[in-house]
Amino acid sequence: MNNWAVVAASHRPLDEAVSAMDVAKQDYSPLGGVAFAALGLLLASAWAWTALSKRFSTDPWIASALFSLILVLGAPAYFFASFANMNSVGDTFADWDAEAAAALELPLYLLSIGAMVLLFMLLAMPLFWAIIRGCSRSRRASS
User: What angle do CA 76, 80, 81 make, to 5 degrees?
Assistant: First the structure.
């Protein structure tokens, strides 16, 4: 993913963009993208193991909230993992296209925003039901 953003922003093949960045003494490393992908797979695997395992009888509400939290944190994690390379692209190429990289990353950011909305809804549900139960109890008590 990180390499795709470098290609999109520089409008050059990856090897050519990295060579130009080396000549300009700008850092480039695929490790951020690899770490992002590895951490994502690790978190998804851990979530699946705990959510589906009979050993951990996780409530579906909690499993959904944890999965949403993982997706919410994906966009900020990607931003920080790719920041150094995008900064190097911007410092190397005067005509770099930040919008092209942003368009490529947009689905991740939209997914993260959607997961945040879902997470807020999941967290608000117990409060909503507690209010509803409290109102119905007070109505019964006053009758």
Answer: 115
